[in-house]
Amino acid sequence: MAVSEGRAALHAFCALGTTIKQAGSQEKFRQIDQTFVLDFGKLCLRLGAKTFSYVSALGADHRSKVFYNRIKGETEAKLKELGFPHLLLHRPSLLLGDRDEFRFGESLAMYAMLPLKWLRIGDSFRGIEASKVARGMLIHAFEKRPASFKIIVSREMHQFTP
Fold this sequence. Notes:
This protein has 162 residues and is α/β, with parallel strands linked by helices. The protein is 44% helix and 20% strand. It contains six helices and seven strands. A hairpin with a 2-residue loop joins strand 1 and strand 2 (7-14). InterPro entries: NAD(P)-bd_dom_sf. It comes from Nitritalea halalkaliphila LW7. This is NAD-dependent epimerase/dehydratase.
């Protein structure tokens, strides 16, 4: 909770998400990444949240042929329909950090993206530490005049150091 102009302002942050493999099916994935996120958003709105910050994904698009990106895009669109005064959608690329399980595809992508970091190009596509995403969420939510709707991509989040 933040205090501004003598009033308490409620900010909600949501980083709930899984993988299809962890969920076990596309149906369960949709339940976790969409239904649970939207239920949390509705609860936050009822409790008076003015700002909702959501970790989505690079490539989120409700028209995507890729299931994962389509669900993320649908979730963003439905969050927008809820009517938060301030909705901040954070679209990181590959999230970096400690994991409980080994993810071969992510490990391969992480190594493939290393030259982008060395060359200082491709900030929108190279992996990003979860701590930078979290810091970006806080910074954008607590701006003096937060945007009513904003999409924040990895390129913008890379500037935040933990």
